[in-house]
Every structure is written in C-alpha cells, then in structure tokens.
Specification:
Blueprint (H helix, E strand, L loop, with lengths): L16 E5 L6 H11 L3 E3 L2 E3 L13 E3 L2 H9 L3 E7 L2 E6 H9 L3 E5 L2 H11 L3 E7 L3 H11 L4 H15 L7 E4 L3 H16 L8 H10 L3
Parallel strand pairs: 1-7, 1-8, 2-7, 3-4, 8-9
Antiparallel strand pairs: 3-6, 5-6
Helix pairs in contact: 1-7, 5-6
Amino acid sequence: MTDGTAGAAEIKRRGIMFVLSSPSGAGKTTISRRLLDADPGIAMSVSCTTRPMRPGEVEGRDYRFVDEAEFRRLRDAGAFLEHARVFGHSYATPRAPVERALAVGRDVLFDIDWQGTQQLKDAAREDVVSVFILPPSWDELERRLKTRAQDSDEVVARRMAKATDEISHWAEYDYIVVNRDIEASTAEVRAILGAERLKRPRQTWLSTFVQRLLAERR
C-alpha cells in the first residue's frame, strides 16, 4: 500500500486474520480460491491436520500432515492459535507463520469453522475479521454437495446435519454473505477485505504521516 508520496516506502500496516466460514457446499472454498488468485496481498494459512493426505494434495501447500502424537505435542507447546476436531480428525493453525505475516503487513486467509474463529478472536480479537458464507436455501446446499460428487450419500447427510449447527453461529461473525451468485459473493468478500485494510487502527503509519503533513504547514 502506498500514499503516493516520497515517503511511501515507510508506510506499513498491520496484517489481518481474514476468516471465511460456512457449512460445506456453501461456496467458501471457491470464494477463497478466487480471492487468493485476485489479491497478492493475502496468503492462505496452512493448517496442521491429522487426516490422511488426499490425492493431489501437497505437504506444506495444502496442509501440514502430522500424526496424533505430534499434533498433541505441538498443541501442548502452545504452537497453535486455534485447534478443533472435525469429522474424527484434528486441525489447527500454526501460530508462528501467522504472527510473522501480520507483523509485516501481510493478510492471512483462514478456512476454519466457528469454533476455530472463536479461538482466534480470544487470542487476537483486533486482528480478526470474520465472514460467514450462507447458502441461499437448504435445497441448494444439498444440491451443491451432491453435485461435487466427492462424497457418499452418507457423508452428504452428515454434512447437511452438521450445517444446522454451523449456521446457528452466524450472528457471531462480523459480516454475512449469502452466496446466491459466486461472482457477486466474491466481489462482496473482496470489498470487505478492502474496507478493513483501511481502518485507522491497522494503518500504523498514519500517526507519523499526519504529523509530517501538519509540519509542512508550519
């Protein structure tokens, strides 16, 4: 970010923990990918997980894959910002890379559930911006899950049942986007991120800049 002046190189802001949550099938993953493709200023948080690696996934890019013993060791050492148990496997956000990114003004995108979001807020509320993606209807949510052809009917039924609990936490989020159209929803999420970047407390350079600006009048 620059202000168009010779002092632009000095300008910094604190990064944002930008959280997207939704029930499976509501469009969160597609919106996340489009946001990452369009905005070089934000990077995906790489979670640790104990679930098996799926075909096409890459260690360190999609997840850091660990066993349960290593996961517990890292958790007990305070290495995670948040952690949760989902569908029989453990997931967590490593603390160190996120804190390094925020300190140099990089935004970090999180694909986590409401429990992880609450843990992030407990750890660093001022750094967290949370967005919940809602489906336009139950029928559409079920249709999307079945259309993906990734899960069995049993898994789809489990995800639909879990969606009830997930959606019940919608009011705990800063912003709500109803995903009727993926292009419009992605634009709305990008607008939220852009506005949050401009909030005064995050622009740590402003105090010095304004002092310099006022000194030019003297």
